[in-house]
């Protein structure tokens, strides 16, 4: 019978009076009525307050009594009071938890008005419940922290397991509800501590384990709390009882899916479908994996005992579990790294990670395994004998299909190289082999010496005469043991070949293990047997033991050298086979990571031929459109060439060392790439740039010292000697940095530089003169007011004319180009640049008696001297024409800018001036109408150079006539009868139709380039030779000539578009030239012309699309960059407008394979993101589908294109539905019946698209779309699909 509230109040007052003096009495009274008491506590908030304060005071007093152990021989009383206290705390906590949970549910029930009225009231109570529960938990924690086991015997468990199970249930309930205050971390610590100590005190590990595992299956957030409880239990009670039960239950459940389904059905209301069960299984396994991960971090030493049981979980289908077990293995490896007794276990775990999980079917597991190995390598926890094995497995993963795995594999290779235990610099393979053989011979000599010490004779040297069935007992004889050791050593030696190929790591390790075991057994025999016959005075046992110790050390050294050689060879093979592929990858992460690898490799081996090729390829990536790649190349150049490490920016950089490195790079024959990298480097505004500019100052000091002996600083004679040995590269470097010399230090020495060159002109070679003139021309570009004496021009021209025909032709031509450039930059006073060059040409012509009296020049071309001078003359003509055209166009551009600047002045003139201007405009318009090409060129030049554009034609027509007259004057010179240029043109007219395979390549190249330069000037000559030029671009034997013709044709296309327009198909056809370099040049030229809007995108752009997936990576990269850039022009319209034409042309037979067509369309359609563009494209493609009647392949291709469009609007769906009806009524017949092939194409590609769209459509929209007429399309705002 229950007690009333009044009786309860009397009892509570009585307990309050005795709580300090006799807390045991109060506890007994409260526990006697605990059931009725709990009922009142649940119902009345006032009772809860009184009972809570009373219970806390009583427990506090009882804790003091237990701590002091005031009563003697009162263990039974203390036992009873402890159980009463635990029961009361547990029941009260359970009440508070129910109140918190119920109050949270009531907040979401009721009308909005009721919610507002009750909200403040409920929040107040909720806060009190949570604070009260937290205080009781704190009290519970302090109470259970006491040494309660002192009142029980060691072999005796606490009575009343029901209380213990209740405490566990209360803790699990609180964890499941997950209703914690702002002190959630502290409360969770309380719960985990209470849970751990309760399980240990009451010895209820078995029951608690299953409860924890079941909770883990349905509560993902509980793993951290339970792991803390298990760790606390293990450390507090120093036993693995709970840990063992948890692991066994976990493995049992993970390996028995049916148990998961049955247990989960008792704790959730999910449906029993297979999908729900699979999802539940994955969630529970993920939570258990998190629990194991936490345990491995803190108690790896205890998990070692159960590693064999845990390894059964490696076959789990849950990737989180496999990743977790990888973490467990790595944590155990870390723990075992300094413990010799776990050496074998550590090796087994290494093999498991490398051999199994580097090849896991899941990308994330493979990536995670590689990432963990990176941490082990950084911590230097990889044993030396596993280093080669891990390196080989890592290099194999660089060919993985996943980019993230490849990225981590390259990062691991970088770590392996950086932290390798072998060397900090790789020696040549020959040196490493010699070192290995020398140490191996030392080992053999030690063994022979040991045999002589033991007086062993007739030791067999034949490796094949080994008795594999020899019993172990026969090895007790030391003579037989030594014979086996020698034989086994020879077996190991025979495995090593003289070339670079080495035996596998596993085979070598197995043979070396046998050898070490035999040597160890012989060592034991020598230490125990004392009856060995000795003939000399020396102690044979001591000598043999010493020799054997040296032999064991030598064997370890030989094994170490073998592993080091194997490690180097693995990496060298990777550089030779896979590094080029990764550098050419279309995935940015591959390129960035391999660049970092090559930067590190340069510190180990920078002189090998393979690395030099890779370095050149890497530096050429500075031209990449990807800013990340170009920046990475720039940083690599700093670290490799300039020794600038971004991690050590404060270190002073040696300018002399920078100069040496830059000179090395110039020698790599990468002039354009090197110059571009240097420009990018000097354009940076960083702290490193200040060091670079300091290097420029030192560089110019060396130049002045080398040139005019006038440097203000004392410079090292040794370094000057090195510079003189490579002065051509040094002068080229000077010419590069002149534009970045902000102080213009060479300007004041300009005349001295000229005079110094004139003094050395007879003694120096053409390369020296060429680079000095390049420096002079760069100085003239910065400032044109310098005076150059006529003697300078006369001596340079004389040097060229008197040059021996045996001198380098390339050097002669470059030197000639430099002097002509200087002539047009700074013309002589007494004679014009054109007249001086014409005299120079006439002198060359006199040397070969030009012009020839007859057309028969075959005999002359057989004369080597005549041919070389003739090539020089043609190259000089080409350079002269180029410089004159550039000068006229630059002058014309200056006039354009000047007239545009005076535009407003003309408007403010009086009426008479306006009439005059109008007359001039009319005259100019007439001339412009006669030559529209000139107007186009002028406008193009202006647009490229100036940001301001001319608004009307009248603004720029007034200055078209000067340019036309200049070019006409130059054309008249070419066509003038009996002139020098006329004779050259007549020779070209004959030579251009010859069979060029019979002539020298340089002669053909120079002649044809001269011809194209004349064609650029003269419209008549262009019309005359254009047919033959395009024919030569296709049939010419020399690939260099075809490449040069592609570039020249690009210039001609700008100059004479109307003449070259009929040859557009042949121009695009050069993309598919049989020589890949020619095709790359053609593609690059066409792409630049289109992107700079110099030519229109014509119907042959499909030829560029065919290159998107070309086998030659540079070609495919250019094509992809072209379409990437085209998609950004005109808000995507530039690419959108050409897509139908590309689809139509690629659909023709024999153009491309079906797979290639699918790849191209998938790539191009990824740029169509505008809904309106998508709608228009759907309409166009549907029209093409109907028009392609009878062309099955074209219809199938169009259907595939429609399937690849990302249709998101209802209007696009309606258009598609109108043209391709989804459902046909039985008696209904469509006007345009599709044949069998059309239906197959529609069903294969478009049925999934229609189904997917209809799945996303709202029912109302779907019905409205069906009711629309098939002949009209609604003209309204595009509505996106839901």
TrEMBL record:
Residues 1041-1203 form the Condensin complex subunit 1 C-terminal domain. InterPro entries: ARM-like, ARM-type_fold, CND1/NCAPD3, Cnd1_C. Coiled coil: none annotated. The keyword Thylakoid does not apply. Keywords: Cell cycle, Cell division, DNA condensation, Mitosis, Nucleus. It holds the Pfam family Cnd1. It is found in: Nucleus. It comes from the Eukaryota. Residues 1261-1282 are annotated as: Disordered. GO terms for cellular component: condensed chromosome, centromeric region; condensin complex; nucleus. One of its GO terms (biological process) is cell division. One of its GO terms (molecular function) is histone binding. This is Condensin complex subunit 1 C-terminal domain-containing protein. It comes from Rotaria sordida.
